[in-house]
Every structure is written in structure tokens, then in C-alpha cells.
Amino acid sequence: MSDFPACPECQSTFTYHDGNLLVCPECGHEWSENDTGEVSQEPSYRDANGTPLADGDTVTVIKDLKIKGSSSVVKVGTKVKNIRLVEGDHDIDCKIDGIGAMKLKSEFVKKV
Q1: Which of 2, 8, 101, 106 is the most buried (most CB within 10 A)?
Q2: Max CA-CA distance within the chain?
Q3: Cβ atoms within 10 A of the Cβ of 79, count?
Q4: Which PANTHER family match (predicted)?
Q5: pTM higher than 0.70, yes or no?
Q6: How much is the pLDDT for 2?
Q7: How do residues 41-51 score in pLDDT, each as one tens digit?
């Protein structure tokens, strides 16, 4: 039996550490545990370099990103101002000049 806390989603006792997160292999839930041992349910958003992101930050795209359903591309180095963080697979909502409203993954941006 491990000394890790049970999963807050499914109460499984088979949790394990993966980097700085605790992971449940049964339901796939990931969460962090702060220094006092309390479980934090608030998601943390980090850019490609591991820098924490917050609402209103300015980021730069680090890879050419094809836009689904269009022939347009978001080029490397494109600055995106005033991002909004949301839960989901694509965790950044933003507006890109010349393209419009988009959703981006935080792994393809870096904080300016």
C-alpha cells in the first residue's frame, strides 16, 4: 500500500507520483499536492518552458500551427496578447490579429 492519498475523483488507492503530480491509473485524474499535504484541485497552466501562465498574459507561438478547416497557418513568433485560460484539451482562448478567435494548447506557446 502506498503513502499517497486516495484519488479525489474515484477514491482509488492506487495513486502514484508522476513528476510533481499525483495520478490515478484507474480514472486518469491528475492533481497536485501542496507542502501541507492538502490536495489542490486548481489546475495549473504552464507554457512549453514550464513557466506558469495566468489570464491576461502575452505569449508567443513556438511552432507553425495549421488551422483546422482552413488553409491558414499561425506562424512561429506570432504574439498573442491577453490570453484567457480555460479547462479542456486546448487550454488557451485568444484572438489572433488577422485570424480571429482561436483556442491554443499551452504546450505550443511561451510566455513573453
Answers
A1: 106
A2: 55
A3: 12
A4: PROTEIN YJDM, PROTEIN YJDM-RELATED
A5: no
A6: 57
A7: 566 889 999 89
First to last CA, the chain: 44
Beta strands in 1-112 (DSSP E): 16-18, 21-23, 30-33, 39-40, 59-61, 65-66, 73-74, 79-80, 84-85, 92-96, 100-104, 109-111
Q: Is 57 exposed, middle or buried (0-12, 13-18, 19+ CB in 10 A)?
A: buried
Residue 52: DSSP 8-state: B
User: Residue 101: CA atoms inside 13 Å, Cβ hemisphere, count?
Assistant: 2
The angle formed by the CA atoms of residues 89, 47 and 6, to the nearest 5 degrees, is 60
The SS3 assignment for 21 reads strand
In whole angstroms, what separates CA 25 from the centre of its chain? 20
Whose CA is closest to 23, among 47, 39, 46?
Answer: 39
Question: Closest Cα to residue 57, out of 107, 108, 93?
Answer: 93
Residues facing 104 on adjacent strands: 92
* Grid coordinates of 3: 503513502
C-alpha cell at 72: 491558414
> Cell for 86?
480555460
